[in-house]
């Protein structure tokens, strides 16, 4: 299937991988396509980091095939077309931002002008600042600049907006969308599901080394097919699940999250059942709610 799709720039085909003797991926198929932002989501230990490591050529599969632009990811010809922003990566303290971006740009055949890279990453005012003097959010923007300076055809972003303020986060989102609109493939991993919802064309949900869902954010949200209710209630999750319309109930401290197919019926029953009900909020189901429901269902099946 992947071989016939010319838009696929990176793929895992039937890939299995063990780390420390433990299975991490089990015959996994995964494709990243040009012109799309693909969000790879799932809990810790699902296999996201291993998948990214395979696609970027940093680790080898035990079985199956990994391709990057139709080549082995370890080949320099394929790696030269990729920009990577890892979750944990240090910067040299003594170099200025401009010096570091200039150095990184020199590794590419046709890099962006350094001034353009700095502007896209929101670093023009920090060009002469030494990396040792950067805040956490500023350092993440420098790492983003290093990933985009070579005009990559594949941009891999691992938790890109950690430590960024709201303004910087939204500015980066805009440049990521622009890269995809210009034809680049973008692979995003993030624990911020609002970020994935805002950016992604496709969402891949992973659990135990397998893909549970591969669809648009809207289609995955539709799996919940209803609303969420958050409130403070004396009722137990089991009592809440007995209410009309309730599909899932989950206590988190003093707050209860309820997923319902009929918000009016569930809210009415809640009010009737709990005179001390407080902090009641009703909203459309989010991507986070949908993914939580998928993972919960998968774990019930596996149990």
Structural class: alpha/beta
Low-confidence stretches: none
User: Quick one: biggest sheet?
Assistant: 6 strands, mixed
**Separation of termini?**
32 Å
Task: State the order of secondary-structure elements, H for helix, E for strand.
Answer: EEEHEHEHHHEHEHEEHEHEEHEH
Number of E strands: 13
Tally of contiguous helical segments:
11
Helix content: 25-40%
Query: For this entry, what is the oligomeric state of its chains?
Result: single chain
CA-atom Rg in angstroms: 22 Å
- Name the overall outline: globular
What is the typical, i.e. mean, pLDDT? 92
Percent strand: 25-35%
Widest β-sheet, arrangement of strands: 5-6-7-3-8-9
What key phrases describe this protein's structure?
6-stranded mixed beta sheet, 11 helices, single chain, 34% helix, 4-stranded antiparallel beta sheet, 303 residues, alpha/beta
Q: How would you summarize what this structure contains?
A:
With 303 residues, this protein is an alpha/beta fold. Helices cover 34% and strands 29% of the residues. The strands form three sheets. Strands 5-6-7-3-8-9 form a six-stranded mixed beta sheet, with helices on both faces. The chain has a four-stranded antiparallel beta sheet with strand order 11-12-10-13. It has a three-stranded antiparallel beta sheet with strand order 2-1-4, covered by helices on one side.
Characterize the structure shown.
The chain contains eleven helices and 13 strands. It has 303 residues and is of the alpha/beta class. A six-stranded mixed beta sheet has the order 5-6-7-3-8-9, sandwiched between helices. It has a four-stranded antiparallel beta sheet with strand order 11-12-10-13. Strands 2-1-4 form a three-stranded antiparallel beta sheet, with helices on one face. β8 (202-207) and β9 form a beta hairpin. α3 crosses α4. The two termini are 32 Å apart.
């Amino acid at each position: 299937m992947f071989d016939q799709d010319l838009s696929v720039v990176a793929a895992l085909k039937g890939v299995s991988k063990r780390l420390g003797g433990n299975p991490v991926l089990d015959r996994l198929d995964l494709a990243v396509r040009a012109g799309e932002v693909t969000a790879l989501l799932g809990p810790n230990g699902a296999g996201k980091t291993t998948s990214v490591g395979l696609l970027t050529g940093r680790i080898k599969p035990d079985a199956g095939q990994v391709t990057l632009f139709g080549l082995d990811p370890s080949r320099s010809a394929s790696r030269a077309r990729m920009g990577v922003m890892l979750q944990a990566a240090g910067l040299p303290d003594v170099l200025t931002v401009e010096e570091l971006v200039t150095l990184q740009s020199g590794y590419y055949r046709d890099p962006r002008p350094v001034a353009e890279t700095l502007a896209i990453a929101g670093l023009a005012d920090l060009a002469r600042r030494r990396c040792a003097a950067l805040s956490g959010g500023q350092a993440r923007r420098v790492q983003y600049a290093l990933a985009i300076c070579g005009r990559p055809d594949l941009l891999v972003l691992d938790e890109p907006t950690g430590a960024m303020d709201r303004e910087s986060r939204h500015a980066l989102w805009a440049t990521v969308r622009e890269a995809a609109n210009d034809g680049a493939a973008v692979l995003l991993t993030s624990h911020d599901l609002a970020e994935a919802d805002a950016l992604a064309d496709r969402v891949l949900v992973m659990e135990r080394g397998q893909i549970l869902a591969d669809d648009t954010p809207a289609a995955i949200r539709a799996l919940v097919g209803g609303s969420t209710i958050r409130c403070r209630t004396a009722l137990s999750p089991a009592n809440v699940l007995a209410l009309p319309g309730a599909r899932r109930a989950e206590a988190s401290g003093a707050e209860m999250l309820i997923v319902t197919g009929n918000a009016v019926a569930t809210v009415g029953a809640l009010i009737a059942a709990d005179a001390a009900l407080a902090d009641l909020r009703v909203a459309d189901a989010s991507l986070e709610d949908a993914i939580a429901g998928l993972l919960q269902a998968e774990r019930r099946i596996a149990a």
